[in-house]
Model the fold of this input.
Amino acid sequence: MHTLAEGTGGARGFVEVPDLLNGRLAVSGVLLHNGTDELHRFHREDSLSYMCRVFHAKSVKGEVRIVREGEQVLAVPATVVANGDGSVTLQGVLPLAALGPGLYSLQAVAKEDAGGDTAASQWTDFEIVN
Done:
């Protein structure tokens, strides 16, 4: 039997599971990638690739926001790609060279394109190191 102290790693963070049965707009967890096996840790010369699924999306716009210490430091449109099952994928690549080392949060936001107030989002944290 192994204890956590003897294990090879661990995980941190909260997982919010969207309610897909209510038929409302919902966003899956956000996946981040930098071309290495390090999870949620990036270097300034890296580009951060992100993606998430949006469910019950008839017509949506996507946006990604980067937040540091409660302040939004970047907001850019996300590419919206239709999937064959009625969902869409929000995805994109962000260069990190303009951001300094530290802890950040990435928020993926999906908004109904029909002009209503309907929106859904998910957050994930990441770190930029030198």
In short: The chain has no helices and nine strands. The domain at 16-129 is CATH 2.60.40.10 (Immunoglobulin-like). The CA atoms of residues 6 and 30 lie 29 Å apart. The first strand starts at residue 26 and ends at 27.
